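Hello Y.,

Per our agreement to keep a running log of every chain we model this quarter, I'm adding this entry. I've kept the format consistent with earlier entries: sequence first, then predicted structure.
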Amino acid sequence: MENFNYHRPATVNAAAALLKKSKGGSYMAGGHTLLPTMKQGLAAPTDIIDLTAIKGFSGIAVSKTAVVIKAGTTHMEVATSAAVKKAIPALWEMAGKIGGVHVRHKGTIGGSIANSDPAADYPSACVGLGATIITNKRKIAADAFFTGMFQTALKDGEIITAVSFPVPKKSSHQKFPNPASRYALVGVFVAQDAGGKVRVAVTGAGPKVFRVPEMEAALSKNFAVSALGGIVAKAKGLNTDMHATAEYRAHLIGVLTRRAVEAAK
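Predicted structure for the entry above:
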């Protein structure tokens, strides 16, 4: 690990100013990706700008129509929130299955989304629920936010400050986890909005989170497992690695989507 300058700003504006002044700085929230990559010599930021001391950077607000979670809120805070459990049970349950207890106590929703790991859980919730990513400069629809593997629509200096999740009529998150990392070999988030329109978002299977239009169209007409009969996810473009082939991941998309429809509430 190389030497670096450590900063702990108290405001979002101060954090943005520090990054702008640095030669090769990096924001840090929970540090679950940044610190390991630094230890492996894969990243060497000149400055680490710790966002966890920013006042008002964590917290959850729930209304009849939306759950707004500030970027510095930990997975454990989401997983233990009675308000989130009542409004969006699938989001609450998903947060409780992220990593292990130590990860849930330190990892943040903003850090997870900004990192855009293709096997992370929150991207599927964002896209599946049609969330809005709020930054210090603008609002970005989740569909436009995740642009590739570890890539997002964030611009230089832009900081996620909150995520707004619309409250669905029904939703469910189903995951086939890697037994060691708890990351998703495949994860599926299914949500039906108040008007009956359905979203199906998949993580772990491809280079980024994606939707399955054929399944969405069928479920929007009839939210039942029977509506998915004959629809098969395509293996083309999916990941093949030491854990699973593209064909197996395609099979899991179908299995987990059916489970999600059955479990949705």
